[in-house]
Amino acid sequence: MISQSIKVLVIDDNAARAHDLEVILNFVGEEAVIVSSAQWQAQLEKTQQEKASFVCVLLGDTAQPMDQMIQAIYQWHTVLPIILVNQSAESFTLNDVSKGAVIFHVEYPTSYPNLLDTLHRAQIVHSQLQKPREPQQQREAKLFRSLVGSSRGIVKVRELMAQVADKEVNVLITGESGTGKEVVARNLHYHSQRRGKPFVPINCGAIPADLLESELFGHEKGAFTGAISSRPGRFELAQGGTLFLDEIGDMPIHMQVKILRVLQERTYERVGSTKTLTADVRIIAATHRNLEEAIEKGQFREDLYYRLNVFPIEMPALRERAEDIPLLLNELIARIESEKRGSVRFSSSAIMALCRHDWPGNVRELANLMERLVITHPYDVIGVNQLPKRFRHVAAEEENDYEALLPQQAEIAQLPSSASTTEELALLPVNGLDLKEYMGNLESNLIRQALDDCNGIVARAADKLKIRRTTLVEKMRKYDMMSGRKLDLSSSA
Predict the structure, then answer these.
(1) What does the alpha-carbon distance between residue 183 and residue 201 come to, in Å, rounded to a whole number?
(2) Helix or strand holding residue 37 (H, E)
(3) Which residue among 14, 15, 315, 490 sits deepest, i.e. has the most Cβ atoms within 10 Å of its Cβ?
(4) Does the pTM exceed 0.70?
């Protein structure tokens, strides 16, 4: 819908049609400025503020040729979309500039939905022309949505990722287990120039030392007992893409030497082969260990460390960014609901209890807790008593206090702060229900209550329901509420 702070300019020498358009636009809640083709420019160039407030032009009959009129409007306001009324752009000989300015045409008389849809599309075009977004900003919004949080630590991580994502350098991601190091690695790959090629992860600590070389570099048939056929390694599978070496700190020393050679020479051989293969891969490594301490103990090669640590990114522990927990809960709930595996909601006191937890397993521990609660308390409101005992960091006598003091956290978790019991949440009956019918009955009942509370004044009822007046009128027609009660349909409350 069009914002209430903007106007629609109607230029039409057909006075009757211009008046009708003004009535329609006022009915749908939009302010219309009506001018003739002879007076529009002189009247509207009085102030720049008036000029900036328009979102589009409805252009009808004009005294001067249409192509000249369109070009004059474009020169007056280059980001103002033009909508032709009762005529098509194909009817005129327009230059490229004029063709670009005309975005739509509407028939007159027009239908209510068609006009609203056209105005909505015009606003979108206007906003895109007026405030073009920078490519980097577009990328960043799309890219880092899986790294939820607004804390200083996670914001810093996102900034570092934006800097290095499309650079051909090795990245070392450090941080405790469960903080999301692989999420960072996948995002870096997705936003690099290699995103069209494979992302291949391997956990260096989960593979036995005697098999790790074969896993990384591949082997030829008969290279060792059990090698019944040739097999490519992870470097070969990741050719042209990204190889993610997770838990690189657990890699044996003899393998560290081989990895160092690949990083230096960009070549390697399969186990049991003398043929040299080229490694066109970007290396992203991750570890929960302190590699500098491991170097002092002789457990990690210093030269390999400096090869990997070209661009370090440190993931903060969850206990260091407790303020992100409500947002993470919201993200996990949305993910579970999108996979149709159920849902839960959290009371404010339960959120506070989770914020006080130490989280040794970090975000992975939080995700596992969510999976457990969805199974044990499906479609329930989780209070402190529904949490496992080790997460109950709010005393029973404090619970009511937090319900009153933490409305913002409850709102973030998509739960009204007053809802702390399962009776206040609609639960799915055992035999199921007709969801469409249930939601329709619920919506119509709320609309009737709002109209009763506002003595039939539609504009006030719309404000109470936080929707537009025209949207409410459409819903009233849908539920057959336009008759049988005294209504005030005026646009003023």
Answers:
(1) 11
(2) none
(3) 315
(4) no
